[in-house]
Amino acid sequence: SLISFSFLVSVFVNNAKFAGPVGTLMLLVIDIGGVFVETSDMSDSLKKLFSLLSPIAFNIGNTFIVGKESSHEGAQWDNIKSTDLSYATCLGMLILDTILYLMLAWYADHVVPR
Asked: How do residues 48-78 score in pLDDT, each as one tens digit?
């Protein structure tokens, strides 16, 4: 997912020395936003919408695993679908993010003038 995000960022930036810091800064801003999304009391459907940004989906998935491990239940194949916003949902969103970023990068590469 991060590689496809990098492809998407590279379409809009011409200089490689500038693309690295810009992509890293964008990921950090999204990741910090993910902490606020994760800790807020918003609905699960709204969190799924924010999970279209891969760092947020990754944070929500990590929180699910940490919660299962701290309750001594453990994240296992039979409980990854235990809630509406589960680990399986986060994995699906990461796959969807990868496909979406690649499609947007391909489209923008053909449309954005150089």
From this structure: 898 898 999 988 888 888 888 898 888 888 8
The DSSP code sequence of 24-65 is: HHHHHHHHHHHHHHHHS---HHHHHHHTTSHHHHHHHHHHHH
Percent helix, strand, coil in the chain, to 5, is 75, 0, 25
Which residue, chain included where needed, has tokens 């929180």?
63
Q: Distance of CA 72 to CAs 85, 86, 87, 90, Å?
A: 20, 17, 17, 21
pTM: predicted TM-score of the whole model, two decimal places: 0.85
Exposure string over 4-34, b if 16+ CB within 10 A, otherwise e: bbbbbbbbeeeeeeebeeebeeebeebeeeb
**pLDDT-flagged residues of the chain (< 70):** none
